[in-house]
Amino acid sequence: MYKRLSIVMFPFLLLALIGASVWGYLEHQEKNTILIKAENQYQRAFHDLSFHMDKLHTELGNTLAVNSVSEPSYRKGLVNVWRLTSQAQSDITQLPLTMLPFNKTGDFLANMANYSYRMSVRDMAKQPLTETEMKTLSALYDHSAEITKEIRGVQDKVMTNNLRWMDVELALASEKENHDNAIIDGFSSVDKKVGAYEELNWGPGSMSSLSKNKISMLSDNDMTAEQIKQKAAQFLGQSDTSNMQVVENGGNAPENQSYSVVIPGGKGGSDQVQMDYTKKGGQLIYFMKPRDVKTSKFDLRQARDIANEFLDQHEYKDMSAVSYDQYQNIANIIFAKREKDVIVYPQQISVKVALDTLEVLGLQAGDYIYGQVQRNIGQPKITAAEARKQLSPNMKVTGETLAIIKNELDEEVLCHEFIGKMNNTMYRVYVNSDLGIEEKIETIRPDQAEAAAGAAK
User: Could you give the CA distance from residue 299 to residue 316 in angstroms, rounded to a whole number?
Assistant: First the structure.
């Protein structure tokens, strides 16, 4: 009986064994295909990075070689530097370096891209490169040569020893602190050298200067955790602070120092209140009271009125709604500061309002806080009628006002703001009130048109 059963079952078992083997082989092949594809992508990005850094060094040298009065040549060179730097940044993002300390090199390239872009878009006939800017370009040329040399060294090791980027990913994902890998060591060496460079003068629009400027916008003294609790309680209209949890953030970097306040809620903590305050001056940066909003009983205009009243109650005076938005029964209204009938767009506050009960669920005031500067708002040199000549004759203007915006050089400029419609699309156009040139154009979504028209009256 057993012999007969084994004769019957043997073909089935053999087929099952063959099927499992084929399945395992195909799975292995598919896995190998995916790994090979990932490895090829990493290798391509790495060799592209080496190529772009080499070209970047060459382009900086070419830019320095031309006469400083040759505006077209300088502009072309700086545009190429910006393009190559941006490509190098893109290459880095495609490599498995997220767990590797490489932030100093990333910041360096970001500042270089920002610097070259700002130099290329400005009018060099009126603002030629200064001696300080030439020194910065020379330093960038020297630094790029060193970075290129280091990356080439890593590239030589990769090609000579057939090193794999997949091994880098596995090494970084492991829990071992010491990674014995030539690629990791090479990139760590690059970042260490970049971190040792002397601080360059990147100008007013750089990442480093912006962070320093942020902290200078704040006044008063450093707050304690207890003082922050009192401020949070006052904002929420309650007296009990016993359930508030306060955490200090930012370490030793003054521009990042803040306090986070958490007030536990019911229902498993899903509706807990979260708030962030600056350490210096104790100003509210962020407030969020999340909850599900299942229905929409009120419209955006009613939400705007409630948000405006909320800002008035919390000492955010003279604010104008400039944008409406709605998502999952929650209205998001953006307000901008208004000074002397001029809308100051760099000073914005975002307010979230639930459309079921008109409860304010959130506030984002970072731009408002760090945009508090002493502004000397003068009179425009050209009239609104003269500025209108920059618009298309086919645009039907529905509103106009004066506004302060930030241009491409990160400078605040006074503009004539026009709201108009053309080709069934609403636009917001800013014309420089001193130079009469077009600074910026924005497309306005249909649901934002009412807010834009209301602001530009």
Answer: 23
